[in-house]
Write a structure and sequence with these properties.
The structure is a homodimer of 160-residue chains.
Chain A (H helix, E strand, L loop, with lengths): L7 E5 L5 E3 L2 H9 L4 E6 L7 E5 H12 L6 H11 L3 E4 L5 E3 L2 H7 L4 E7 L2 E5 L1 H17 L18
Antiparallel strand pairs in A: 1-7, 2-6, 3-4, 3-5, 4-8, 7-8
The structure holds a DNA duplex (30 and 30 nucleotides).
Chain lengths: 160, 160
DNA sequence: TTGCTGACCATGATTTCCCATGATATTCAA
DNA sequence: TTGAATATCATGGGAAATCATGGTCAGCAA
């Protein structure tokens, strides 16, 4: 069973706001033994939706619990994350209804672009994504050395 | 059990996009106790696919988690690596379906060239590979001394 | 009513699964 | 060491399941 959200897909959003969650993503949720999906606006305010399963949602809740309540930080995070999150059940064909506020936030009308990001995934307006893609490629290229790819950063790869 | 990806092979891509993963490569995956393969476009954007097993994929995820999220670097790496990675299960005859986007990227139509690279391997359009091979030989020849062959202990492996 | 939601059914296009085959490779015994 | 018996490998094809998508209809609220 798949462990990480990976790959991308652009799916249609129908007149009722329904979108198919890409099959590989559903398999990750399934692996968590869950068929609900959590969507939250990207916390820094960019026009992107962040998505994940219950497992990750629980982790977020756990981190919050470690914070001191009745502080502005706790307040802000609790409200922005949990206050704006939607827990959406997948229907029997693997679709969710994308809440109107998320369509507004992202500018999504009839197409939604899904991007896997390991423990989470994102939903973008395809146009926004394409507009930023070239720059992301450049930034990624300039930062390869942050990942244990083939350089010496890949410390424990077996060879001395 | 084999530990590194080595050797090369050129295999057919059938009408359904299926390719046999070279048997020696399968043995490396088997050694990791896994039968899924991860493919990612080469990060600098050349028309090459990078492949490896779940073990290496986990390491990539782990390094990401150590980075500061919501930075352009994190974003770019997450989207370009995980967003474009495919986790592909091998079928019972050791084949995968090479995703269309990878066939497009590399220009692969009916033949795929596999090249072992120790901890990862690459998939090339055979023509692209052949076209660049002579130059790679020259570059390798000019840099033999960078490898710590027997008798050359402590050779300089390049400083940060 | 009018409009929205959710449950259910329908469908074409993949994609996956399963079985089959010829070409090497490998094993093992004489 | 040679040759026959046995695996392994790369490849092909058809049937069955999955996927993304669309539509209908009943319930419920405004």
């Amino acid at each position: 069973m798949l462990k990480f959200f990976s790959s991308s897909a652009t799916n249609k959003v129908d007149a009722k706001g329904r979108v198919s969650i890409p099959a590989p993503f559903r398999k990750v949720l399934q692996g968590e033994g869950s068929s609900v999906l959590v969507l939250v606006p990207e916390i820094t305010g960019r026009p992107i939706i962040e998505g994940f399963g219950e497992a990750h949602f629980n982790k977020l809740a756990a981190s919050l619990e470690e914070m001191n309540p009745y502080t502005p930080e706790y307040d802000a995070l609790a409200n922005m994350v949990f206050g704006e999150a939607h827990q959406l059940p997948l229907d029997d064909t693997g679709r969710i209804v994308l809440p109107q506020e998320f369509r507004d936030l992202t500018g999504i009308t009839d197409l939604a672009h899904f991007v896997g990001r390991a423990n989470t995934f994102q939903i973008w307006n395809p146009e926004t994504y394409n507009a930023g893609r070239a720059e992301m490629r450049e930034t990624a290229k300039a930062n390869v050395d942050k990942l244990p790819w083939a350089g010496k950063r890949g410390a424990d790869r077996g060879a001395p």
